[in-house]
Each structure stands twice: as structure tokens, then as C-alpha cells.
Amino acid sequence: MERFAVCSQMTENPNQDDTRLHFDSGSKPRSRRFEVRAERALRRELLIEPLAELGLVAIGGPNDPEPQLELADGRVVAIDGRSEQEFDVIDHFLARHGIDVAVAAEAAELDDDEIARRLVDIAVGRAELVRLSRGLTPARLARVVGLLDPVELMFALKKLRARRQPANQAHVTNLKENPALLAADAAEAAARGFAELETTVGVARYAPLNAIALLVGSQTGRRGAMTQCAVEERRNLQLAILGLVTYAETLSVYGTEAVFADGDDTPWSKAFLASAYASRGVKVRFTSGGGSEALMGHAEGCSLLYLEARCLATIRAAGSQGVQNGSISCVALAISLPAGTRGILAENVLAAWLDLEVASGNDAIASHSPTRRTGKLMGQFLPGTDFVTSGYSVMPRRDNMFGGGNYDADDLDEWLTLQRDWQVDAGIEPLAEDDVLAVRERGARAIQAVFAAFGFPPVTDEEVASATSGYDSRDLPDRDRAEDVLAADRVLSEGLSGLDVARELDRAGFTDVAEAVLEMQRQRMSADYLQTSAVIGPDGTVRSAVNEPNRYSGPGTGYRLEGERWELLQALPHVLDAGALVESDNPVGAEVVRELGRALAGDRSDEVVIALGPAFGDGLRATIAGIPHGQVLRALIEGAEEAGARPRLVRVRHSADVASIGHAGAKLSGSQVAIGLQSKGTTLIHRADLQPLDNLELFGMAPLLTLDSYRAIGRNAAGYALGQRVGPVPTTLDNFARAKLIVLTTLLHARETQAVVPGAPAVDLELLPATPDA
Amino acid sequence: MSFDPATDYPLGVHRPDLVTTPSGVPLAEVTIERLRAGSLDANDIRATPETLRRQAAVAAAAGRPQLAENLERAAELAGVPADVLLEIYTALRPRRSSVAELGGWAERLEQEYNAPRAAAFVREAAAVGALRGLLADD
């Protein structure tokens, strides 16, 4: 009813454009604006109200248990509303491995607000907070982080991140599983600074080939980049034992017993598997993330954040050094809920608080809307996490086989620009096109050599070329997949290892790549990267939370993007030299005007002064739209003369301001009317009796002014001078003109300002004959 | 020189003298020259139980008891064949094994592989699995 009333009022408005309202067959009025918004990409996803019974509550659900921790004889006998007899498998695991009984008593004395405040207090160090976390139950952990608002969460995350410097992880896959393209993408990813590279398979048997392509490509791009191939555990362990991969993050954990069992694991089986990986020198990161329990139908009515707290407590108890979390593949479900994005950030904070390395999601597609995706990203991007994404797609989204690609190859300049905008290191380095082509080709050539040496189906020169410069796998020829699979089987049956890869690279002349692959084998011996948040530098030194811990304690401490690294991250290939920009856009052409002498006030009533800025036709020779100044003047003169006025050219030297230029011209004009003109093309029509900042017409959109516009401006100025009735010159509007041209405007205007001679009187000018470029 | 977990990390940088392959090849000798000479064995390029124990000590010194415990288990499992590890992992998954079968694995870990921590872990899993109905029937 109310909507109807509003609409009928609107239709009575005579100015109302009736196309904005239309009536369906049922005559139900619709707002065109609502209709247009409903068509936007954002609206392809659903937003829902919380539904607690299905666990669809982001933070603080009505069924979440009250925090509780009871001890008896130094043993945990009750956790979060369940007694020992009622413990599920997760409670049992936490009671045995996840609670520090000594700290628990101390933590019980603190209220939730006090702990929450400590999370954002720079006087309370990370180590103290981590210690405190060891005495808290999942319900308590979730409740405390749930008290923080988004900015507090970001601040806590900055403080709690384990490793000093943030890093990033890449996804490297392609739909054809082409080894040359995998190697080229891996080479580029490593060269861009990704500390870890993850691939997977479409066809499981391909895994050994993809692992080799990633290993060879990554070590071509930058020594020390770690690689993984996300496949089933048995195959994964085989690849690790052969030295073809160095880390794994396939170990999923869930927050309820039912989902854990549906995932075919228990905390003990997962923890044992983690130890098995570690025994072979494989870095392991677990995976969890809010929403998975609800998606799998057994959330037990609890909130995403509470169940994630159970996951994270389990992961730490299992002895994992880290986790990838933050809803991960369930992100779109989490953000369908109110405060879903805050809840995801709270998950990341919780993981960091529990002293875990955090690879903070942002890999699965969160939204159809780029605005919403980036809004979500900022929570991790600005504070910095151990791995800002769990997989940035270095290839175009179409080739991403993780069902991901929240950010991909096409978004790279945006990512780099955001880093530059915020002065934030989110782990990706700019690289010039030539350097990218070179490193991609070398990666593809290296894998070509390895395939040849092993007698695998050849990688052709055509594949190398397309992998180097192509857009995605559609640019590559199809391979004989059956033959490739046989080659992959040979890797396992013959035990072709990282050492064999290194040997063949060396024989083929890729000695530096061979050395790098061998270094990755040495890393498995020292196993330094098994410590929390480890990455390997190009010199082979492991940097982890042990030797490079985050010790942020307020401004001026911790990791800051500055010095050489800041120079590197701000130098995007397409950044221009500001000085050169003005020169190149304003080639000095033929002279346009000649100065005659001091300008005096005219006395003819049909005179229109055309007053030029100090650099017009002199230091600068064209407008921001690229129109040569000579042509602008001729158009103005033509227009004024057509309308019966006598134009006179004058240069104003004391000011670069368009109003001052115009007003000074008007005072010299016999008709009191003048056109003021800046070198960049901004124009106005002024009259001597008006205030200097007032005007008759202003044409601020210099980039959109054409010669026709200038001609019309000349006519109008004449009209004002001769006392005729004048309609305003039609102008167009481009709201993006400012974003596009403000830099150039500033630079051009600076040149005008530099040409100002304070106190200098205006001078008369003579227009020189036209030349082809003036 | 004895090992100090608080200062000797990273081992590869500060204590390469302590890092060898299981057959005793020092880290410094895992070189491209030895690779060319054919004197490196892929099966031998891995962390020793001693190295993993030292990493456990580093984790403990850094205040990470559970990570240390994980690495201690890893040190014990370094000598267990991969196939056996995967068998035990499978046995630990829901409803794969009875209490007795898990007990058998614990026994083997203890007796055959000298892995008491891993064995205790498997027994714990069996006890809790029995309580929660996550085991197979005997």
C-alpha cells in the first residue's frame, strides 16, 4: 500500500520521466532503478537470514555452548557444556592435546572483554597472547574474537601473524594439463615472488608430471619456491618421497564429529598422517574453514565461528604448524550471512592467535561482484597474513582447476596497484613484460629438456612458444594424453626423483635450475621448513616464525613495506615518468603567436578579447585533448567573427588561473567581454563587471572540448559582447574524465604555473599563419 | 659442539655439520658434482630421525609443544616404510579397525619400529574410537 502511495505521487510530478516506472501485467509498479540493480552480477548470489538450526549463523549462534572448562586432578573433565562422558571425538582430542591446564586456571580469571582488549593492545605481545590461548576452549576463543569489530580484527591479525613478512601462494593449473604451460606459469609465479605454488590434477594419474613441471618451472623462476600437488594422500606422499613436492595442505578438519567421520577421518588419523608427512620432510598445513559443516549437513546448530574454533583447536593439538582457513571453498556460503565477512576474518585471527601459520583463503570465488570480492579481501590484504591468498591464480580463471580464481592473471595489475596504493606487501612483485616472456620461455624449455631426457612424449617448440606468450591453454596444441599418462606412471614405477630431474637439467645445460632443484632436495635433509610459517629464500635460507617472528608492537615496529622492497613494489611496468609525460604529449611544434607589446584597454564595443594563459602557444602547444593551440585560436576567432565581433588576442602573464585570465582579458576588452583560455584547454567567458571567480559560461571539461565547441564559444562571447540573446554552448559530460586525466591536468597546469611572471602586464599577440601542426 | 635449539636454527645455515642423510652423507656433500659423479642416492636424500628430533627441540624451545610432539612422532616414523605408514593411517580412519587391530599396530610400532610415542597415539585413538563408536567390530 505504501509503495503504491509513493508511486502515485511520483506520477503526478510533471517532471517525472514515465519510463522510470512501469507497470507489469498485474499493474504492480516497479522501480527501474531496482530492476537495473537486480540485473547486476552481485544479485546472482543469495543473501539469507540466519537459520540457526542448520548452523547458518556467522558469529555467536543461539545454540553455541557457553564457554566452560573444568579440571579435576589436572585433567580436563568438561569442555563447553559437555562432560567427559559426553565428549565427542574432538573434545577427547582437545582434552588430551589441546588445553594447557596450567594456563587454563589463569585464563579463567580473565573476563572476555579483558582478553579481547589484550588482542588489540600493543603493550601485550604476541607471545603472551599465544600462551593465553593455550588455556581457552573453542567456545571461549570464538566468543572473544567475536567481540572485535572489523578494524580491531585487522589490527589483531597484524599483531598475531606468525612470520614477520607476509607472503603469497599461487595456483598453477591448466585444463589441458600441458607441462610446458604449467612450467611457464610456475616460472612466472616464482619470479613474481610467490613463496609457494600449488597445482592439482584433472586426471589423477597425471600427478607426477604436473609435480615435475611445477618443480622445474618454479626453480627456473626463483630458487626456493616451494611446491605441492594436491592429490589423494597416498600419491601425495609418494611424490614427496621422490622429492618432487615439498609441502601439502590437503589435510581437512571439521568442527563436528559427524562431519569429521563423513570426511573419513578422525583427529587421530589426521594427526598421524601429518606426522607421516613430516617424517618424509614434507611441510604440512591443515585446511579448515567456516561453512563446511553446514554444507555437509551436520553443523549441530552451531555458528560458523564456533565450529571453526573447534577445528583450529584440533589443528593446533594435532601439532600442525599451520592452516589454510577463512571459509576457503565455502566462502560464498559464509558471506551469504550477516557479518559473514567479519566472521571469516575472525577465523583468520583465531588461527594466528593459536600460533598457526595462516594461508588466509581468498582463493575460491567469493562473489560475482568485484567490489564485494575486494571488500572481503581487504581484511587479510591490509594486515598481511603468512599467505594472503591460499592460491592466487597466476593463469586466467578458465584454466584454474581448483574451482577458484577469485583473483587471476587478468587481475594482476589491480593487485599490484592495490599494493602500491596502500603501501602494503601482499606478496606479488611487478615484472616487466620482457622479463616475464624470458622466464616463461626458460621454464618451458627446461621442462622440454627434462621430458626429452626421460623419453617422455616430447614437448614441441610450438608448445614452448605458445606457453611463453599465449593467453591460456586454448592457445596450446592438444597433447596425446594417453601417452602422457603412461609417462606419468613411469615416474612412479621407475622412481624418477628430484635428483634425477636435477641431473637431467644439468646435462641439458640448465645447470642453475639443476642447482636449485638440488637445493630443494637438501632442504628435505635439514627439514628447517617444518617449523611454523616457513618459506625458503632464494639463497636457500629458511625464514620462519622461529628465526623471523612477527614482533609487531605498534608504529615503527614489525614488518613495514619500505626501502628496496617498497621501491620494487611501486615500480609497476606501466608507471610513467611524470616529467617525460608532459614533454611527450606536447611536442614543441611551430610557433603559434608572436608578442607585440603591452596590451592596453580597447575602446571598440564589438571587441572580444581572447585572453591566453602564460604558456599558451608557447611552452605548451596543444590542449589536454591534443588539439593544437593554433587551431583552437582559429576556431574561437572564426566563431567570434561569424557572430559579428572583432576578436583580439592577448596573453595574460601574471596568473595561470582561468578565472583571473578571463577577468583580466575582460578588463582589457572594449566590450568588457573576454574569453579566458588555459593552455590545457579549459575555457570561460567573462565580463569585467563580474566578480573574478564568477563568469558567464565555464567550460571545465577541457578534454571533451572540440574545435566545434571552441567555435561556439567564440560565437557566444560575441553574442554577449553585442548584447544579443545567447543560449549556452552545449557541452558533454564524462564523469570518468577526471580519473583518466587528472594527472595530465596537474602536469600541464604546473607548466602553465611555471610560466607565470608575477606582476607582469598582459601583452597583445599576433596569430602566426597556420602550419600543418599548429 | 652440542646442539642448542634456541640458537642453532636454521640447521641448514647454523649447523650443517649436524645434517646428514640416513647413510651419513653430510649436507655439504649433496652437490652437483656428486650428482654428476652418480654418487647420490635418491632414497637417501631425506631427514634423519636425529634431524627431526632436533627440529622437535627447536619447536619446543619456541614454545610449540604440540608441533614438537608431532615432530617427535615424525622422527619415530622416519624409519617406517611409507606403505606401512599409509596402512596405519587407513587403519585409524573411522570404522576401519577394531580395538584389537589398532592394538596390533601399536604393538608393531613399538616392537618393530621403536616408535613408542606413535604407538601410544594409536592406542589413544583406539580408546577414544571405542568410546565414540568409530571403530569396526571385532
Number of strands of chain A: 22
| CATH architecture heading of the largest domain in chain A | Alpha-Beta Barrel
- CATH class call of the largest domain in chain A: Alpha Beta
- Count structural domains of chain B: 2
How many DSSP H or I helices of chain B? 7
Q: CATH fold name of the largest domain in chain A, please? A: TIM Barrel
| Helix percentage range of chain B | 55-70%
> What's the CATH superfamily of the largest domain in chain A, by name?
Diol/glycerol dehydratase, large subunit
Give a written overview of the molecule.
The complex is a heterodimer of chains A (774) and B (138). Chain A has 774 residues and is α/β, with parallel strands linked by helices. Chain A folds into 4 domains: 2-39, no CATH class; 40-160 and 246-388, Diol/glycerol dehydratase, large subunit (TIM Barrel, Alpha-Beta Barrel), CATH 3.20.20; 168-243 and 391-406 and 424-544, Diol/glycerol dehydratase, large subunit (TIM Barrel, Alpha-Beta Barrel), CATH 3.20.20; 583-767, Rossmann fold, CATH 3.40.50.10150. Chain A has 30 helices and 22 strands. A 7-stranded mixed beta sheet of chain A has the order 16-22-18-17-19-20-21, sandwiched between helices. A 4-stranded parallel beta sheet of chain A has the order 8-7-6-13, covered by helices on one side. Chain A has a 4-stranded parallel beta sheet with strand order 9-10-11-12. In chain A, a hairpin with a 2-residue loop joins strand 3 and strand 4. In chain A, helix 7 (138-146) packs across helix 17. The longest helix of chain A has 22 residues, at 433-454. The two termini of chain A are 66 Å apart. Chain B has 138 residues and is mainly α. Chain B has 2 domains: 1-78, no CATH class; 80-138, Hypothetical Protein Yqey, Chain: A, domain1 (Orthogonal Bundle), CATH 1.10.1510.20. Chain B has helices spanning 11-14, 32-36, 49-61, 65-77, 82-92, 99-111, 116-132. Chain B is globular. The interface between A and B is large, with 73 and 61 residues.
